Amino acid sequence: MLSCILSLQAALSRLIFSFSRDQMLPGSAWMSKLSKNSVPDNAMIVSCLLPVLICVWVYFQPDNLARITAFAVIGIYISFQMVVLAALRQRLKGWKPAGEWSVGGWGMLVNILALAYGLCGIWLLAQPAESNDFMDRWTVLVGLAVVVISGLVYMVLARPFGRSNAPENDAIEHAKRLNAGQPL
User: Fold this and answer.
1) What CA–CA distance (Å, rounded) separates 91 from 111?
2) According to Swiss-Prot or TrEMBL, what is its membrane topology (predicted)?
3) Is 107 inside any structural domain?
């Protein structure tokens, strides 16, 4: 469990840093700073604060651990499935992944099975808990709705998209260059 927590915090801090570097989050100037060792310390602080608060909450309310875990895991599943869906979409548009490792002609099937597996996982995690209390029963979906709605409101009001100068929509061309042995 400790390994999972540390890897998620490391990934989250890098995600916060990259979004902040592209000026897509409130407080981006502060969260996009790197330490002298090239570590996004401020983004790491942000990624550690919420888990600490959750740990304190679970310490005093241990019955909430299963619901909090299900909410966190459904978020992870949705995030991964967004990548799987994007890869499937690109495959349908003609993308052939480049690189040293490949499953060859099985790629499309593996991609479809990965999407089906993830969607089944999301469906299972979204099932209501056994409780008579509405919030206990629907914590996962209510939490998910709060995150999605607040994210959409932020997207509409702050309009953070389009601020990045990172390349986009280049997966097919990038893969063609790699497959042809051309430098990137």
Assistant:
1) 9
2) Multi-pass membrane protein
3) yes
